[in-house]
Amino acid sequence: MTYKPWGHEELIEKNEKYVVKRLFMEKDHRCSLQYHEYKKETIYVLDGTLKISIGDDINNLIDMLLYKGMYITIFPKIIHRMEGVTDTYYLESSTPELDDVVRLKDDYNRI
């Protein structure tokens, strides 16, 4: 388990083809506004409500609410941020580039 300022994540599987994580996002917390150069990921909500801000222009992002059983795939170079509307558990299945994160904004002053 890896603790984050917004909750925690658990690495379930990592191999040369894919990664699966189980994440917990606390209500009213959010991850950094970010994009990935190469990583493609799919977010699947297990429980709770997750807000995703997403788009290809930082000044023109669309907000979407994902509820239990809903999912979205995020392609490389797409700007995005997840936020817990409620305490939320979700899965992230992605390509294996774990360190491929370009942070644009962060509530917790991470680089």
Tag the structure with descriptive keywords:
111 residues, mainly beta, Jelly Rolls, 6-stranded antiparallel sheet, 11 strands
Quick take:
The protein is an all-beta fold.
Topology:
Blueprint: E1 2-4, E2 7-14, E3 19-25, E4 33-35, E5 41-47, E6 49-55, E7 62-67, E8 71-74, E9 79-84, E10 88-94, E11 102-105
Antiparallel strand pairs: 1-2, 2-3, 3-10, 4-11, 5-8, 5-10, 6-7, 6-9
Plain-language structure description:
The strands form 3 sheets. A 6-stranded antiparallel sheet has the order 1-2-3-10-5-8, with no helix packed on it. It has a 3-stranded antiparallel sheet with strand order 7-6-9, with no helix packed on it. By secondary structure, the protein is mostly beta strands. It has one domain: Jelly Rolls (Sandwich). A hairpin with a 6-residue loop joins strand 6 (49-55) and strand 7 (62-67). The two termini are 21 Å apart. The chain contains no helices and 11 strands. The radius of gyration is 13 Å and the shape is globular. The mean pLDDT is 97. The protein is 0% helix and 56% strand.
Bin the helical content. under 10%
Q: In CATH, what is the class?
A: Mainly Beta
- Please report the distance between the alpha carbons of the first and last residues: 21 Å
The proportion of strand residues reads: over 45%
Shape: globular
Poorly predicted runs = none
Based on CA atoms alone, the radius of gyration comes out at 13 Å
What is the overall number of helices? 0
CATH architecture: Sandwich
Mean pLDDT: 97
Q: What profile does the largest beta sheet have?
A: 6 strands, antiparallel
